[in-house]
Amino acid sequence: MNVDLFDFALPPERIALRPAVPRDAARMLVVTPEGLADRIVSDLPSQLRPGDLLVFNDTRVIPAQLEGTRGHARIGATLHKREGPRRWRAFVRNARRLRDGDAIDFGQGVTATAHDRAEDGSWALDFAGDEPVELLLERAGRMPLPPYIAGKRDTDARDADDYQTMFAAEPGAVAAPTAALHFTPALLAALDAAGIGHATLTLHVGAGTFLPVKAEDTADHRMHAEWGRIDAATADRLNATRAGGGRVIAVGTTSLRLIESATDAQGVIRPFDGDTSIFITPGYRFRGIDGLMTNFHLPRSTLFMLVSALMGLDRMQAAYAHAIGNDYRFYSYGDASLLLP
């Protein structure tokens, strides 16, 4: 499909620079085949049914943004995928000043050697020393806010909490699974009281999620791989929910993409441990999920293509036009949508 079909005009003031307080006070646009409804996130228990199951991504964002030097050259690096105990693939700013084997000094006693530049321009960075890389990043790194926020303000101490979900447990993401940022213990308790369960899986979100689609046709776009895991007990629970008449509602596109990657042609969700680069566009037949809660996404992005595949392109263009016209807040710190096909 032509990528232009997924374009829309978004006024810059619609981009949220801070999350709602409290988190579950964010607005929520409910999109169904019957139409649109304006709600808030704390209304979620009344929008779902007893027996439904929400599926969250329990990945934890690491401080994956690094600033360093190679000689007199300034080098910026955003880690996006782990390739070994001490090796991370990274997008590098000022990469033309790097050569294979160059050492980058990130300060605080943290250095890495650049190797193996890939076709997409990324480099493999091998971190020196014996300390776990996670400790090195805690010392020298910053929270990797999305470019549409970082370009408007500096990262600060609030972001260390604001950009983690209440489910964050497994370190490895360089972007938050932002739909889950709306959840609070009080909301989870209200969902439990309404008979709506929850489960977790892990998908370490990579910085590739923010890369623009440069191809003119979706068939020519290549997705970056991300590592994910669904254990056997969770797969069994998801299958049992659907077999019992409940719906599996993915919280976030990352949860959805992993569930769909783990689902076979018969609609059975299997245990999964490995990389996925699934790219979902209109025409895709969903096999493992029955709904999605997600934030509002960038124009021409793979994520807007995904929600259009779930609900229909015309319906999502209308929903986004409604959101823009009614002052919904967009992107990572913005408001939510609940998509129930």
Strand order of the largest sheet: 2-1-17-16-14-3-12-13-15
Order of helices and strands: EEHEEEEEEEEHHHEHEEHEHEEHHE
| CATH level-3 fold name of the largest domain | QueA-like
Number of separate strands: 17
Rg calculated over all Cα atoms: 20 Å
Estimate percent helicity: 10-25%
Proportion of residues in β-strands: 25-35%
> How many distinct helices?
9
Secondary structure class reads alpha/beta
CATH architecture annotation name of the largest domain: 3-Layer(aba) Sandwich
Which word captures the global form?
A: globular
Low-confidence parts: none
Mean pLDDT: 95
**CATH homology-level superfamily of the largest domain:** QueA-like
CATH class bucket of the largest domain: Alpha Beta
Main sheet properties: 9 strands, mixed
Domain count, please report it.
Answer: 2
User: How far apart are the first and last residues' alpha carbons, in Å?
Assistant: 21 Å
Keywords: Cytoplasm, Queuosine biosynthesis, S-adenosyl-L-methionine, Transferase
Organism: Sphingomonas endophytica
GO molecular function: S-adenosylmethionine:tRNA ribosyltransferase-isomerase activity
Protein name: S-adenosylmethionine:tRNA ribosyltransferase-isomerase
What does this entry look like structurally?
- Its EC number is 2.4.99.17.
- One of its GO terms (molecular function) is S-adenosylmethionine:tRNA ribosyltransferase-isomerase activity.
- With 341 residues, the protein is an alpha/beta fold.
- The chain folds into two domains: 3-61 and 161-339, QueA-like, CATH 3.40.1780.10; 65-141, Thrombin, subunit H (Beta Barrel).
- It has helices at residues 44-47, 133-140, 147-150, 159-162, 185-193, 232-243, 253-262, 302-311, 313-325, and strands at residues 27-32, 35-40, 53-57, 59-61, 65-70, 73-82, 87-93, 103-105, 111-115, 123-127, 170-173, 197-203, 226-230, 248-251, 272-276, 291-295, 336-339.
- The protein is globular, with a radius of gyration of 20 Å.
- The mean pLDDT is 95.
